Structure formats: C-alpha cells, structure tokens
Amino acid sequence: MSVLVEPVRVPILGKDTIVVGYGMIQSIVAEILKDLPSSTYVLVTDTNIAKLHLSSFHKAFDDISKKLNIETRLLVYTVPPGESSKSRGTKAAIEDWMLQNRCTRDSILLAIGGGVIGDMAGYVAATFMRGIKFVQVPTTLLSMVDSSIGGKTAIDTPHGKNLIGAFWQPERIFVDLAFLETLPEREFINGMAEIIKTAIFWDKNEFDRLENNVDDFLAAFTNRDAETGIVDLSSIKDTLHALVIGSIRVKAFVVSADEREGGLRNLLNFGHSIGHAYEAIFTPQILHGECVAIGIVKEAELARYLGLLSDSTVARISKILTAYGLPISPADAVVQKRTNGRPTPVDRLLEVMAVDKKNAGAKKKIVLLTGIGKTYEQKASVVADADIRFVLSPDVVVNGTSQSPKSQVVVIPPGSKSITNRALLLAALATGTCELQNLLRSDDTEHMMNAISLLSGAQFKWLTNENGDDVLSVTGHGGDLIAPTEEIFLGNSGTSARFLTAVATIAKASDKNDSLVLTGNSRMKVRPISSLVTALRNNGAKIEYLESVGSLPLRLTADEHLKGGRVELAATVSSQYVSAILMAAPYAESPLTLSLVGGKPVSQPYIDMTITMMASFGITVVKSKTEEHTYEIPTGVYTAPAKYVVESDASSATYPLAFAALTGTTCTIPNIGSKSLQGDAQFAVDVLAPMGCQVTQTESSTTVTGPAIGGLKPLASVDMEPMTDAFLTASVLAAVAHDGSNSTIPTQITGIANQRVKECNRIEAMVHELAKFGVVASELEDGIKITGKSSFADLTVPTGEVHTYDDHRVAMSFSLLAVVTPGAVTISDRKCVEKTWPGWWDVLARKFGVSLEGYEAPAAVKAVKQFHPNNNKSVFVIGMRGAGKTSVGRWIADALGQSFHDLDTYLEEKLESTIPEIIKKDGWEGFRQEELNVLKDVIKKHPVGYTLACGGGLVETPEARTILQKYIADGGIVIHIHRDIKLIMEYLTYDKTRPSYVDDMLGVWQRREAWFAGCSNYMVYNSDISKPEDTAKMQKSLRTYLQTITGLSSLHSDLVAKPRSAFLSLTYPDVAVAMPDISAITAGVDLLELRVDLLRPAPNASVPSVEFVQEQIGLIRKHTDVPILFTIRTVSQGGKFPDDYHERAVDLMLLALKLGVAYLDVELTLPASVIAQVVERRGFTKLIASNHDFSGTWKWDGPQWASKYAEAVSGGWCDVIKFVGFASSRSDNVALEQFRASHAAKPLIAINMGKVGQLSRVLNTFLTPVTHPHLPAAAAPGQLSVGEIAEAAKLIGEL
Ligand SMILES: NC(=O)c1ccc[n+]([C@@H]2O[C@H](COP(=O)([O-])OP(=O)(O)OC[C@H]3O[C@@H](n4cnc5c(N)ncnc54)[C@H](O)[C@@H]3O)[C@@H](O)[C@H]2O)c1
Ligand SMILES: [Zn+2]
Predict the structure, then answer these.
(1) pLDDT tens profile 431-449
(2) Which atom of ligand 1 is closest in space to residue 82's alpha carbon?
(3) DSSP 102
(4) Around Cβ 55, how many Cβ atoms within 10 Å?
(5) What one-character DSSP code corresponds to residue 687?
(6) Which ligand is nearest to the CA of 296?
(7) Of the candidates 1031, 924, 1025, 937, the residue with the CA atom closest to the CA atom of residue 979
(8) Secondary structure of the chain: what % helix, strand, coil (to 5)?
C-alpha cells in the first residue's frame, strides 16, 4: 500500500508555482478560487479529457465556490483532441467565443489537458486583451514534465511546429499524477521520451533510476482494467512521483536560469533538432515523443561521429529508449507500419532543420552529448551541415585520407561477443563485484543479462569509469540462481541458449514454482541442442522439450542438479556445448570430468577461451593427461576479479590494422596480443607480416606499420581456416598487393568455405564487388583468388555504389579499399556495420582522417506503368443476366464502331439448338463446357473489331475466369455491366423465355458479382432508365466513357489547349438533388467534380459505401455527359474523409478507375503505397496531384510549394498539379503568378483561397474550380462562378 503522496511545491522563476501531487482536484480548485479570484474562469480542454474528468472538476468548482460564497462563473470550451487543434483557426474561434461571452482582462483561463491544450490555450491567454492570467493543469505525462513548464505557448503552421507563439508564464501549474490513470499507454510512453531525454543530458542518477525501473513501469502501465481502461498506478506511485518531480526540477531550474532561451535552455531541446525534422514528415501518425526518441539517437550518433561520445553510451541510450517501447530509427517496424513506409529524404530533413529557432542564421545548432548527464557546451553547439547529413544518410561516400605516413594511431575496437557473454555469465556466477570493461552491447548481451536477472543471478549497474567509459558492475550471487515464474526468452542468441541450458540446471526452486522455461524466437526453436541436453540429463538434470524434440523451448526442473563424475559429450557440432558444461561444472555435486567423444571437437580455440576465462574467475580446469579431449573440473565457486577487461574483437581489429598496412602508417591495438583468446588475433602475424608489414606483437598488444605506399606483397597461398572472418580484410589488401613483375602472382586464400553461408555468400560477394574496382578475382572451392593492382592509381573508381549485402564485414573491408581508390567511392547501407562496430565510420573519420560524406540515392523513380490505347481490340462485356449486357453491349459496339456478338447466340448457332435444349440434353455441366469452348473460339477468331457479350454464368467456370483475367493482363478490356439486384429481379420475373436459376437468385447474384468484379477491369453502372431521353443521354456519356478507357479521348489535350477551362464541384450528400438542374449548372463547365468525401456515409460509418458511390456516378452519367473528376478530400486537406482511412480511400479510387472517370484527384499527402496502387491501375484516367494549405501560411516564394512541386513532378505519374494556398494580401497573388510562370513542367491549377485570393481564380486559366449560383454553397471560400470569372477577366483585360 502506498500512502497518498504529499503535494510538493517546485519553484520556477523565483516563485513556488508548480504543485505536484496525486488526486488533487479539490485542492486545485480551492487554491484557484482563493488565490486567483476572478469573475470569470474559462476552462479550455479537449473532448477526451472532458469525457473523463470534466464533471468532477465542475462539481468541485460548484461545491467550493458555493461553500466559500464566491460569485463567479465557469465557462467551458472543448476542442477536438489532437495536434490539429493547435491552429490559428482554433485560437480565433476561442477568442471570438470569449469576446461573445464578455470575457474581460480579469478573466482567468484554465488549460486542462495535454500539450496541445496547454500550448494553444496558453497562447490565447497570452494575447487575449493583451494577456490574461492562466493556469495549467497538465493531464499527459509529456505535458506534466515538459510542455506545461517554462511558459512557452504556441500554435503550428505548415512551415513547422510552434512557429507562432509567445512566452507567457502560467500563474500555477498543478501536476496531478492521478490524471495518468486514464492516459492511454502509447501517450504514457510518449511522455517517457521527454523524461528520458532530460535524464540523458542532465542527470546520470535519474538515468540509472530509469534503467532500473523499466519493468515495474511497463508492468504498471499495461495492467489496465478491462472495463474502465484505468490503470492501477499504486505500485509505482512513489517512483513516478520522484521521477516526474526530478524531471520538472531540471526543467524549472533551466528555465529559471534562462527564461528566454539564450543558451542553457537549449539543452532541453536535446533530441529535438533532428526529432522535429522527423516529426514534420511523420506527423500525425508518429507522436512527438516518438520522434524525439529517434532524434535523441541520431543526435547521440552525431556526437559520436564528432568524436565526443563513446559507442557504448550511444548503445546505452538506444537501449533504454527501446526498453520503454520507443522507436529509435525511422526504419523501426512500427514506424514504417504506422506511416505506410513514408520516406524521410535527407534533403527534406535538413530543410526542416533549417527553420529551427536555435539556429544562428544559416548555422544549425544541436545539443552535443559527451556522456550521460554531460554536454559539450552548456548550450547547443554549431554543427556543420555535412556532419548532420552524414548521420542522417543511409549511404556513405568515402574519399581519401589526410593522414600523413608517419602517423601513429591507437584504436580499441568493440569487445568480443564471445568473451562478453562468457564474462557476463562467469561474473554472475561468482562471488564479489566485478567491473566489466569494453563489453560489447548487442542483442546477445541483452538476452544474457535479462536471463541472469530473471534467474536472480546477479545485480547489474552501469557506471562511468575514470576514462569516461561505460563499465558494467556485476555483483554475482555465487551461483545462487532461483527459478523464475516468467519464461526466459533468449531471442536468437545461440551462446545464451547453450550456456544457460547447462548453467540453469543449478537453479533452485522458489516457493512459487519449481521449474523454469528457456525459450527463443522461431529461428532459435529450430536450432539444435540435443547432444547438450542428453549429456546433462545423463548427469542428473531433468530437462523436458516443450515443443519439438531437440530444440528450445525447454523446461528445467529446479533442484535437479548435475551430479558430477564423468560426462560424455559429442562435441563435433558446437563448441558452445562444451563451454556450457565447463562453465556449469564447478557447481555440480562432485567434481566433473568432461570427455569429448566422437572425433575432433570443432573450434578448439573457443574451448580454450572458456578454460582461460574460467581461470581468471578462480576455477582451474585440468586437461586429462591420460585421455584425449577430456577435462577435469573441480567443484567450487567462482571469485570475481575486481576488474575484467573484455578483449576487443579480433576480427574487428583487422580493419584498423589493415588501414595501416594500406597507407604505410602505424596502428596499435592495445588489448589484443599473442596471448589473445581469439584465433583472428593471428591476422597481423600470419597475414600482414608476410604481405610486407612490420608487426610487433606483445602478449597483450599488436602494432602494425604498413610498407611504403604500394608496397604490399601478394601471398601465393594462405590458409585462413583459423581466422575465417578476416578473409574479407585480406582480400581488399590483396587487391593492391603486387610483386613488382609484369604478371604478378595472385593471392590465394583458402580454408574459408564456411564464409559462403554467413550474412551472404561472402566469397561471391567479394569477387563481384572487387570487379567494380577493376580487380580481377575468382572463386575457389574453399577460397578466393585475387590478382592485385600494381598501384592504387590503377584501381577503377566504381561508377555505382559498392553493394554491402547487409554484411558488416563487406562494408568495413570496402571502406578501406575506398580510401586508397583514386576518387570518391559510394558504399551502400553504411548502417550494416552496427552489427559489430556501430562507430566504425566515426573511427575512420576521426582517427584515420578519412573524409566521408553522407549520401542518399535519389528516390528511385519507379518506371510508371505504360498503358496502350485499345486500338479496336475486341471488348468483352460480362455481367448478370438482366444487367443489360445486350442493350448496353450494343451501345458500346456502336460507340466503338465494333460488331456486336452475343456469345449465347453464337453458341446456339454453333450447336444448332437453343440453350434450354442444350441444358436438357447435356446437363448444366455440358452447357458450361460448350460456353467455355465458345469463349476460347471467339478470342482466337475475333481478336479485333468485336464487342462480345458473355453469358451470365460463364464466370462459374474457373477456366473462363482465368481466360478473362489473362485477357486483361494482356492489355484487353473486359467491362462489367453492373445493375442493382432489385432491378434485375424485376426484369427477370417478366422474362420467361430464359432457363431459370438453379439456386436462389440473391445467392447467385452475390457469388457472381464478386467474380465479375475480379474478371473485369472496367465497369458500367446501368441506372434505371425508363424515359427515352435518358437513354440518349446515357448513350452519350457512355461514348465519353469509352473514349477515356480505350485511350482515344482527346479531352486532356483539348483542355490544355483551351484558353480557359473550369470544373464545378458537386458538394452534396446525394447528387440526385442536382440532377434536374444539371444542364443549367454545367453550362460553360468542362468537368464535374464529384466530392466523394462529402457524400452521405454508409449507416454507422464515416465514409460512403462503394455501392453508393457507384450509383452516384451512374446517376451523373444518366443525366449528363460532362466528364467526371473524382475527388476524395481528406480532413487534413480540408475535406471530410478521415486521414487514416487509407484502405477505404484505395477501394474508392480503384472504383473510380474502373468506372473510367476522366480525372482522379490524388492528394500528395497520401502514403506512397496508396499512390502506387492507384498509379498501377490508372489506365487512361488523368491523375491530378493535389495539395492544399489550409493553415494559409505557405508562401508561394517559400520552400514548401517548390518542394511539393518537385515531389509531384518527380513521382512521374501525375498529369496535372493542383495547388491551393491562401492569400492574405494582394502580394500573395503576385507571388502565385510568379510561381505559376516558373513552374510549367505540367499543367498547373494554382489558386489562393479567401476573398483576397479571388484574383488568382481569374488568373488561373486551366481547370479553375468554379461555383454556380444554383449550388447550395461554394465548395471553397472565395470561389467564383463561370460568369463572374469571365466578367472579371474581361475587366482586367485578360479576355
Ligand atoms: N510548450 C512546450 O514547451 C512544449 C514542450 C513539449 C511539447 N509541446 C507540445 O505538446 C504537444 C503534445 O502534447 P501531448 O503529448 O500532451 O499531446 P495531446 O495534448 O495531444 O494529448 C495526447 C492525447 O491524450 C489525450 N489525453 C490527455 N490527457 C489525458 C488523460 N489524462 N486521460 C486520457 N486521455 C488523455 C488527449 O485527448 C490526446 O488525445 C505538441 O503540440 C508539442 O508541440 C510543447
Ligand atoms: Zn518535446
């Protein structure tokens, strides 16, 4: 039970105005009424919060004001939730409403809500009557620790967020943690990003606290009452309180020291410079805190690239963000899913960053971290664009090095993975505290640490040592493991799974349970472990397979320990089994003898590594003197050395050493020497020395000096079996190794067959990529042969990118060759080095003086699918019987100048009997077969010049469906005549001449309609036509339609050539009302726009159904042949269609294409995947790439419109561009005309909304949106009619 936390007051700007507590509504209201008296309180909140908390606030207000006998009123204004309420529009609406309600300068504004409410309402307070008092009651975690504190208020504009606002300090900030009980989980995590951010740049202890409390926090926040959705925060109340206060104190301190953001306050913006840039692209799908999390990691990487921050600190930062469920990269799967894979071009990110308020003019400023809790300056620092670009870019351009031949460099590569995991386990099993240094932080490490924690095996604590390196302090429990209730998940970490299977046999039962489960991901669940399990079982362990025999998951019974004595193990599969038993053996009941049977054990170096490391932890393994491959392990407890330095990874060390070899410089690896535990440590002695390098190796260090430039010698033959991973490094050296003769001997590397099944087929990859440098190489059965160039100058500069196959070793090797290639070399996907050496590029740049540039390939302009005009190719017509195939089919034939053929008639003529007769004779099956034959017949006999109407049941035959689909795929047209089922039924009951359906009509209709839809690429909606004049109109619009779908229409080129053209919007929930008047309102209009988003939604839905939309188009076509522009306008673009209903939007747009509309509006803000689906099926419908600026803040001479235009044109799919801005002054129209004049790649519709913008509607000549006096309302403010435009144009001499 946690006691109610006492409210705590935190000072800011010299006043105790922040109050933090739990469950304070009563006291909040009382304090407001007493200390901030007013005749009017204006409460602003959003509808979410109003639903949950408004009534209790209201009640408290009424009760207390009555009790205190205070005459006052409480006005409430609620806005929709979400960032879109942080707009000029909302602000203006509130202001108007306040004025209407006679609010005065003494009114007090109460902002109850998240950052959106606080920022926006705060800005209202700042400007209403030149500023009124206001109170913040933050209700989200983010607003509690961040936005409510500091007095920054703002609204958004499309130029960026928060660009218009004011500093306006609230009178009070009441932080009531009880609000968090109703906060959605994602919002909580979102707020954690700011808390973590503050800890990172300011407070190491707080950071430790966060690292240590992840599990408790997440547990509390996911434990939600199923009914009320409320979480029980009692278990973390105190920690939460401490954490929130801690974060608030930092912010309050910084703000007090630097209210107007001169320097120190910059620090709060850590992670935001880059975070905001991602936010600009990802909003609204990705939340602020989530973008900040990505920004934090990128800015930490930037500090690392500048040589200020260590690899391990970057890893630690990434780790904690991930642990709290935050994304750390735009490539994060959740981010990709939520944004539908929206790209984040580096140029755009930099463009957004250019408007950051911290910047000093054109110079970008970013907070640079030097460690947890420390920054480079007490403010943001100036950073060169090139460095930011590098960090944001996926690829890298490698230039030469500025290093002089005399230079000497010391490099410590990241720790070895094998040694890291052994060290972790041994330190946990030991008594005492051990500081592990140079640990590799990888997934494997995380799984191992997590497992040890679950087994209560040790306490971990990250510390920073005197050199500023992160070290892990492990306090082991001496082998006292306790079986956890929770399953131990090991991902795909092979070492963890193997080691723990043996080591967990020493676990004891707890009072809760007496067994434990080891499990992994799906890949892990098929990796073998049976020889190890068998050996352990034979020695007393009780292990059960829970899924497939021979793999994880396993259940180990606690208290069933190893007995000791003799253990036999087949060690020909994996040395990890051997290491596992060796490390567990000291805790057996009696000394254990491990005998490896079945032949020579694989990877002896790893077994030796384990034995050496066990010795460092106080247990000496004795090799049997009498038996081969047999080890004796005494019982005992490991004792931890005070400090254990994890050796650097020897494979990684080959890269810096090879750099020295290539450039004639000197490089030292201070922690790998002749006594190294790793096979690859021999690389310097066995490969580099024979190639001509000078190598000095001590027991614990290696130094290499390269020969004079161009002096590397080839190796006639080198067996790299003991260090297979290093062959890639050797290969790039071999590429420039030459013996000085005219035909140099090649270097032959063997013993590396296993490298074909690593991240990629590395031998093949090296041969392929070396060729790009003009280096001749070939594959050997178990190796590679490379003929070196005689000088660097002979290397070819690759024209494209060097491909890296998502393989860190390929990338690092080629980065070396790139340095000596005479020209810039682009290496793709530079991030793949992160698997083993995240800071490799930073080392290359800082330590080796290599000049690097970030590079991003221009967005691949996907070849836009070409459609070919139909050229009189025969057209199929399908549909239900009674849908009108014959009548509409004849009209189609007419319009296309084709002959009409009814396949039923064709069949009857062919077989010389009627269909009922055929069915009677051969049954339905026989009839269907004949029908199919006819289909095949006509395709062969009548490929051109025919309109072919198929029988309604044809699609029942699968083969017929395939044939029709193939016809479409080959560029043919199949039109589905669709008619309402009710009309069909009516029709069929009159027609007795036809054979009756075998099953019920509705069932048949539903089944077949789906097939018709799947076997057609176009559709005609056959409306009910009763009057003959309708028939004539219908035929006319069918003609327009057929011209569109066959690619014969000249509409678009006609409109482009026309001096003036216009379209009219139908803005009705049902266009039927406009039909009686349609010819009048379409006079002088070239297109009719159907605003689909404004159509009546289906019952209980927010968008109209496909059926309704198709009916509406049928209806329009029945009444007029004016071609249709089909538009779905989303909310954020000023329409009514929900922004995130992507699938529904696609369905409707594909419907429009099937219905062959002349133009289709495609919003540029739609996800690329949506646009791609439309473009893929567009046929001959013209696509209008549209963008609207509804905030009215984009300037025609600003970067946004230009960048949008480039985006539209570069997509390669649009036929027209439509940009709608806003004019607040006449000069906006002038700027627009300049924009129009300088952007002529595509026909452009560009207008300004608003009264002042009307001029632009007159000056726009191509497809100007117009209204008509008969319409209920103009579709947009400022819209003019055709007549008005003509008149105005005449007046200004434009006509
Ligand atoms: N002024 C500053 O210094 C500053 C600092 C950081 C962020 N911000 C701004 O803050 C905004 C983001 O604020 P936010 O993250 O609080 O978002 P928000 O205000 O949009 O709230 C997030 C969501 O949670 C709901 N919600 C709020 N409190 C709730 C509760 N107690 N229970 C249930 N639902 C609740 C809201 O209705 C909304 O849907 C951004 O506009 C950002 O620019 C400002
Ligand atoms: Zn923020």
Answers:
(1) 999 999 998 887 788 889 9
(2) 20
(3) T
(4) 10
(5) I
(6) 2
(7) 1025
(8) 45, 20, 35
